[in-house]
């Protein structure tokens, strides 16, 4: 992840340097008396704010489509504002329109990219907030959260699953269980340390929470295993959700690597939570065997 951040910061620095060199090649430096220092102060602050947006976006958001839109929007604005600032120091010939175009075009494109990214961020936050509202209602009377991921823990999973199984038997409503496991996670922890593993688990929990529906209940089942209770959900719909999650999980990296996660979903046919979870574990084991994932090789970039 840090390598991706470094690459994007490097790209920003290269583009800003290229803009500076082009401006110096096309323009002449103004005399000291012709420089408006008040304009320089205002435009310098605007450029600094745009660069801070770019940096904070990279440092505080996980990699993904929304983060990319916010980054490129901030980068385009930064380039436009940098050229505006250089314009205060340089004078261009009247027949040279290149710098005028370069100053004017990136700003609206950057605003459009930022707007699109902010819309995606808003949608993500709405999904997370729905999960948090349901969690807060329960936490008024209970303290059953996993301390690391802040997801519901095993005790809550059993309570919810037994309740939903009872409703499933009474009302004949469909109920599916989705179980997710990180392949070769113990080997990854041995190679990179538990801190890297914990950071990945936290990012994984946040991503899963953002992809769950309001009616779904997501829990940490074991160290590297998660379970989602999908109420009123048929097997076919659960499989679509599982496929979508696997696609989204390819965005996550840890120590520069993309960890593979196995996902299995079942239609609940048992009447007790223990039996249903055992059924899901068997389905997950079969999914791992079908996937035939290789043994973890440190430094090879995958699991």
Commentary on this structure:
- With 303 residues, the chain is an alpha+beta fold.
- The protein has ten helices and six strands.
- The chain has helices at residues 2-26, 37-60, 65-87, 98-104, 106-139, 154-171, 185-192, 194-211, 235-249, 273-291, and strands spanning 28-29, 90-91, 175-182, 217-222, 225-231, 261-267.
- It has a four-stranded antiparallel beta sheet, with helices on both faces. Strands 1-2 form a two-stranded antiparallel ribbon.
- A hairpin with a 2-residue loop joins β4 and β5.
- α3 (65-87) crosses α5.
- It is elongated and about 85 Å long.
- It starts with a helix and ends in a 12-residue tail after the last helix.
Structure keywords:
disordered C terminus; 303 residues; elongated; single chain; four-stranded antiparallel sheet; two-stranded antiparallel sheet; alpha+beta
Secondary structure: elements and pairs:
Layout (H helix, E strand, L loop, with lengths): L1 H25 L1 E2 L7 H24 L4 H23 L2 E2 L6 H7 L1 H34 L14 H18 L3 E8 L2 H8 L1 H18 L5 E6 L2 E7 L3 H15 L11 E7 L5 H19 L12
Antiparallel strand pairs: 1-2, 3-5, 3-6, 4-5
Helix pairs in contact: 1-3, 2-3, 3-4, 3-5, 5-8, 7-8
Tell me about the largest β-sheet: 4 strands, antiparallel
Run of helices and strands: HEHHEHHHEHHEEHEH
Number of helices, counting only DSSP H or I runs of 4 residues or more? 10
Instruction: Give a count of the beta strands, DSSP E runs of length 2 or more.
Output: 6
The average pLDDT value, as a whole number, equals 78
Strand content: 5-15%
Shape: elongated
Derived from helix and strand composition plus strand pairing, the structural class reads alpha+beta
Radius of gyration: 26 Å
